[in-house]
Amino acid sequence: MAIKKCKECNKEVSSSAKTCPHCGVKKPGISARVSLKYFIVALVLSMSVAAIAMIPDIHLTKSIGKSDSSLSGKPATVFHLGGDKENYCTVTFTNHFFKSSKGKLSNLRRNQPEFDMDCNWDSNYYVISTDDDTFVKANFYGKKDQPMTLFVDIDAKLTTTNGESASVSGNDIAIELDSWKNFN
Question: Cα separations (Å) of 113 from 7, 48, 56, 137, 140?
Answer without folding.
Answer: 64, 34, 26, 14, 18
